[in-house]
Amino acid sequence: MLQIFMKQKHFNIPLFIPELACPFQCIYCNQKKISGRLKVPSAEEINKIVEEHLRTIPEKCSRVELAFFGGNFTGLQLNEQEAFLKLVQRHIKTGRISGIRLSTRPDYINEEVLKLLKRYNVKTIELGAQSMDDGVLKLSKRGHTVRDTETASAMILRAGFSLGLQIMIGLPGDTLEKSVFTAEKIIEIGADNTRIYPALVIKDTKMEKMYKEGKYQPLTLKEAVKWSKKLLLIFEKANVKVIRLGLHPSEGLLSGEELVAGPFHPSFRELVLTEIWNDLLKPLLDSEKSGEIEIHVPPGQLNYAIGYEGRNKKMLLGKYQQVKFCSDQELTGREYKFRLFVSFS
Length: 345
What we know:
By secondary structure, this protein is an alpha/beta fold. The protein folds into two domains: 9-266, Aldolase class I (TIM Barrel, Alpha-Beta Barrel), CATH 3.20.20.70; 274-341. The chain is built from 14 helices and twelve strands. The strands form three sheets. The chain has a seven-stranded parallel β-sheet. It has a three-stranded mixed β-sheet with strand order 11-10-12. Strand 3 (99-104), helix 5 (111-119) and strand 4 (122-130) form a beta-alpha-beta unit. Helix 8 runs parallel beside helix 10.
């Protein structure tokens, strides 16, 4: 009997709750501008957002999570948290939504909160760790310590949740070495997912003032790509899933109206993966032979192998007369194989 197993595709339904219940104003933070939302969505709006998303998601072979982002969810009063969580339980009961994920601060986790979240089908809790260096946290006015992140993470894992720890690179006082250390600590703590965000200077933040006074310089785009490439490879080796590379491109960021400075790019992940493939393909330039080359890569890696705006292909065209990339179902990860066609005159 032939059985065919279809891989489930994951979908997130994001619900942004800007700055709700957050007692601190980190120097880089203006969630209203970053998320593109200026107010907290009402119950009616939440239901509408969920319904609209579900209409576009196929019922078969789909795994759908609802995600509360943009604020300090567990800083809300317990009855307010419960009210938000209750809104989507009917979709969980029907099976359309598999569970809930949310983001919050490391210093707003306690046993009572975790019991509530467990009762209402929260599966993943993401903490804005940002850095595992107390000096960087202090300069960023995060209001919590590395120890707070470690303690909250241990509680979350003991309670049976999936743990996500977010990292922000290029904050005041940060270095590549400190960011690598943060990535290694995230792995050591036991997170199974993460997000890598390059720090941006957003309007109406304390970091904007620092930038304009010459007290802070954000990473260049080239630096942010270099740092992110190194961190991504570290996380991949440890089987920690990198859910996002770079901030979600809201209208304000895309238009430049809210962005003052910093390494924002709408295709930031593609830039990072292009650089990884650039490193992999560079040895092909050392071949003594030229002519035409055909490079086979895994299907999901084709665009990254070719590179953003064809960068990697252009690099190889500096040596070869013709460069062809092909999708190969037999290859996995970032494996590749190539064939050279040498013409003799």
